[in-house]
C-alpha cells in the first residue's frame, strides 16, 4: 500500500513541505490530490472542493509541477504554455500576457519559439513551473521541483516559490532536500511507508527531538571514541572528520563531565560547539522510528 | 451552469485537437499507416484490372477515409503515456471525455480533409457524383465513426508502446478492408462474406459511396447511415469506458 490512511490539513497561504524517503508515498499523495489516480477509500478536499466529486473545480485552482518532466517536447515553449492555458480556460489575451511575463522572469523568452526537445533539464523544469503558473493558481503542487538542477537554477526556483507564496498562493512541496524544506516551509509532514510520522514546523520538529542534541569537540591528541562514549550523559559518540560528535540529552550537564575527562587525560580542547539537531537528524530519526 | 460546463469542456477539447495536429500528424507511423500503406494497397489491386473509375473511386474513398481517420487515434494515448504528458492532461481541469473528444475530433478532421482527395481525383477523371449530399454527409459520419474506432483500438491493452498498438490496430484494420466491399462489391461476395461484412462499419460507408457515385448500393441509404451512427456511438462509449478502467495502469 503506497499511502495508508493519512490525515493532514494544509492552511490557506501556507508553504507546506512533504518529506519522506524514496517510495514513502509522497508522489502518490500528490497524484491523488491532483486527480491522476483515485484513492481506494477516504476523502480529500482542495479549497473545500471534493477531489473526486468536484474534481474539475478543484483542479481548476491548481498549478502542478509533476516529478517527471512532461512538457510536450515536440511543441515550442510558447505552444506548451498556450496549450495549458487553454486547458485551464484562460482567455487568449490573458494567457499570452502571462506567458510572456513568466518566460521573461524565468529567462526563457528568447527561446520561446524553440522546441522543448532541445531544452536542458533546467530549462524544462523552469518551463514546467511556467506551465504550472499560467492559470494563476491558488494552490501549487510541486513534486521535487529542484531535483537534479544546478545550484543557480535551484536558487531561482526557490526564490520564485517564496515569491509566489508571499503573493498568497498555497504551496504543497515534496522534496528530498532537507535544507530546502527548512528554508522554505512553514510546516513539514514527514511520511514513511505511507504513514505520516510527524507534522510540525521545522523548528519545533528539531526542538522536540530528544537525544539529537549534540556537542562537537576536537582535542590536541587522538582520543578513543569508546572512551568518550563512556562519559556520563553521552548517548553516542561519532567521528566526523577531525572532530567527534557526542549525542546527548542535556549538553550543559555533559560539558562539566567532558572537562573532567579532558583534565584526567591531560588533553587540551581545540574547539567545542553545542549543536541543535538538523532537520536531517530529525528526519532520519523519525523515519527509523516509523 | 451545466450548459456552460459542457461548452467550456468542448472548447478545451479543441485545444487537444490543436495539440494533436501540431504533434502527431507529421509522425512517421501516422504517415506510413495512414496514407502510404492504403495507397499502395489500392494500387496493387487496381493495376492490371479493367474496372471503371465509378467502380474504383468508392473503394478508394472508403479505404482513404478508414485509414486516415484511424491513423492517429490509436497512437496518441500510448505516445502520451510514454512521454509522461498524459499525466499532465489528466491532472488538468478537463474530463476524460474532453481528452478523448479532442482525440476523436482530430482524427475526424484528418479523415474528412484527406477523404476529399479521392473525390477530387474522381471528379478530375470524369466521375459523376450522383448524390453529393449523401456523399458529404457519409464522409462526415464515417470519419467520425472511424475516428471513434481509432481510440477504441488504443484502449486495451493499456500499453505505452505506440509501435505495438500500431501493429495490433493494423492486424484489425487490414482484415476489415477485405471484408467491407472495398475490392469486391458486397453483392459479389459469397454468403459467408456477406455475413462477415455486416460487422464492419466500413461496409456501410463503402456502400454509401457506391450509392453516391454509382447510383446504387447493396443496402438502403437509411440503413447505411443509421448503422454508421450506431457504430460511432458504440465505439466512442466503449472506448471511453475501457480507457476509464485502464487509465491508471498507464500512468
In short:
The complex is a heterodimer of chains A (290) and B (251). Chain A is of the alpha/beta class. Helix content of chain A is 38%, strand content 22%.
Would you give an account of this structure?
The complex is a heterodimer of chains A (290) and B (251). With 290 residues, chain A is α/β, with parallel strands linked by helices. Chain A is built from 11 helices and 12 strands. In chain A, the strands form 3 sheets. In chain A, strands 4-5-6-1-7-8 form a 6-stranded mixed β-sheet, sandwiched between helices. Chain A starts with 14 loop residues before the first strand and ends with a helix. The mean pLDDT of chain A is 90. By secondary structure, chain B is mainly alpha-helical. In chain B, helix 2 packs antiparallel against helix 3 and helix 7 (132-153) runs antiparallel to helix 10. The longest helix of chain B has 30 residues, at 221-250. The two termini of chain B are 32 Å apart. The mean pLDDT of chain B is 89. The A-B interface holds A 31, 34-38, 55-57, 59-60, 62, 64, 66, 68-75, 79, 83-84, 86-89, 131 and B 5, 8, 11-12, 14-16, 18-19, 22-23, 83-85, 87-95, 248, 251.
Main sheet strand line-up of chain A:
4-5-6-1-7-8
Shape of chain B: globular
How far the N terminus sits from the C terminus of chain A, by CA atoms, comes to 15 Å
Mean pLDDT of chain A: 90
Rg calc of chain A: 24 Å
Mean pLDDT of chain B: 89
Secondary structure blueprint with pairings:
The complex is a heterodimer of chains A (290) and B (251).
Chain A: E1 15-19, H1 26-33, E2 45-46, E3 49-50, H2 55-60, E4 62-65, H3 77-87, H4 92-105, H5 121-133, E5 139-143, H6 151-166, E6 170-175, H7 178-184, E7 187-192, E8 195-200, H8 202-207, E9 213-219, H9 225-229, E10 234-240, E11 243-248, H10 251-264, E12 269-275, H11 279-289
Parallel strand pairs in A: 1-6, 1-7, 4-5, 5-6
Antiparallel strand pairs in A: 2-3, 7-8, 9-11, 9-12, 10-11
Helix pairs in contact in A: 3-4, 3-5
Chain B: H1 2-24, H2 28-46, H3 53-69, H4 73-83, H5 86-90, H6 96-124, H7 132-153, H8 162-178, H9 191-197, H10 201-214, H11 221-250
Helix pairs in contact in B: 1-6, 2-3, 3-6, 3-7, 3-10, 4-7, 4-8, 6-7, 6-11, 7-10, 7-11, 10-11
